[in-house]
Structure formats: C-alpha cells, structure tokens
C-alpha cells in the first residue's frame, strides 16, 4: 500500500517547527513509511566515513539529516 504525502522530491519547502524553523530548501527524498523528508541544507549531521579505496583516509562528512513530515510545508 502506498502512503500519500503532501510533498514529493523536488518540491520547495519551509520548516515550520523544531530547531531548524524558518529554513527553506528543496526536498531531496521522502520516506513515507517513516514519515520523514530530507531537505537540502537543513539539519546537517556529521557522519563518520570508513576507510576505503575511494576514501583512503576515512574521516567525517556532513550530510543532510531527515526531518519529520509534519514539520515542513510547501512554499
């Protein structure tokens, strides 16, 4: 069964609640089953990267974190 959401990838949204209230950005992805959206440039989190051939030093990378679906509105 498909869960319907009010936003989809590519939509311009504004965060209306939480620590990132007032920020605007573009939706990168929507996870309807977990009721989460990833908005570009909002809620940046640091993620550790394991050593690999592509990244021989490993390190820490900043990625966009998810926000609850109810905390965003279309602009």
What's the SSE blueprint?
Elements: E1 12-15, E2 24-31, E3 36-39, E4 44-49, E5 59-64, E6 66-68, E7 72-74
Antiparallel strand pairs: 1-2, 1-7, 2-3, 3-6, 4-5
Structure commentary:
This protein is 0% helix and 45% strand. The chain is mainly β. It has a single domain (12-74), classed as SH3 type barrels. The strands form 2 sheets. A 5-stranded antiparallel β-sheet has the order 6-3-2-1-7, with no helix packed on it. A hairpin with an 8-residue loop joins β1 and β2 (24-31). The two termini are 28 Å apart.
Characteristics of this structure?
75 residues; mainly beta; SH3 type barrels; 5-stranded antiparallel sheet; two-stranded antiparallel sheet; 45% strand
Oligomeric form of this entry?
A: single chain
CATH class: Mainly Beta
CATH architecture: Roll
The third-level CATH topology is SH3 type barrels
């Amino acid at each position: 069964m498909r869960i319907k959401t009010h936003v989809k990838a590519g939509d311009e949204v504004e965060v209306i609640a939480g620590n990132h209230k007032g920020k605007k950005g573009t939706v990168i992805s929507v996870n309807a089953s977990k009721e989460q959206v990833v908005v570009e440039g909002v809620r940046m989190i640091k993620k550790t990267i394991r050593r690999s051939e592509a990244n021989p030093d490993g390190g820490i990378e900043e990625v966009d974190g998810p926000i609850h679906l109810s905390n965003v509105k279309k602009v």
